[in-house]
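Attaching the record inline, Q. Sequence:
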Amino acid sequence: MEFERWFSTEDACRTYLKRLRWPEGFICPRCGYREAWETGRGLLHCRGCGADVSVTTGTIFHRSHIPLRLWFRAMWGITNQKSGISAAGLQRTLGFGSYRTAWTCLHKLRHAMVRKGRDRLKGKTEVDETFIGGVEPGAGRRRLGKTKALVAIAAEAKGRRGIGRIRLKQIPNASETSLLGFIKEAVAPGALVVTDGWPSYQGLTDIGYAHRPRVARTSEKDVTTLMPRVHRVAALLKRWLLGIHQGRVSHIQLGHYLDEFAFRFNRRKSRNRGKLFYRLVQQAVMIDPVPYRQLAGAQNCGNVCAPSAT
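Structure, as predicted:
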């Protein structure tokens, strides 16, 4: 009810976005001038260059036909629900006229869940890969499938068996280039990286990491005991994809779902739903617009990511 009182009108939503986008006062995106007056249409008229600037210009809300009130309700629904919401569920809840509108709205918000310049994982970190997809005949234990997607997982160690932050990324294969590239992107230099005995990880020490390989065949313990954190994250990810999205996630858009899962997991202990909502809106006004074609198009994930049901 407090949420409805705060954001009951379009003006209230615009005012909130304005405070988040320009916390120290208006800055014209064209000329950098810091003074403007508001027009009757809710635009900001720059006193420097005379441009009419919308508070949504250059954000994920750019040129959207969805009212801001519905955008805000969608963001509240995403952050307020423990496990999230599907596009079909969002369409029913907010009364969108088409499934495509709800789908686009959700994917734009998932895109906003990745904060620019976020810190890399530190300290002891477990890294492994997992397949997303159904059973593939003849694949066996190979780390390359024709119809499955390969996802790299990095999980920060916290305490004896606890998990800190995580990072997920869809990768084309389990080669040294793919895996070491993911680690350099996700883990801070100098960290202790724990992996299995896969040969592609052997170059970790050469790029500035402490490496501790744990090989199950030379140990009395199984791999889930040797690296419990990444295997727990992989199990939770697959359960989430199956439960909320019925397992019908296209490999082409899988990266967006990985971003949402990581966003939720890394904030799983936050008791304040309003703070999660605030963080999502804050990041939504800080990223560039994402057109539908970019959301629907194939990402750079290689031939392994064959399209499946959306």
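The first strand starts at residue 36 and ends at 38. Residues 228-245 form the longest helix (18 residues).

More tomorrow.
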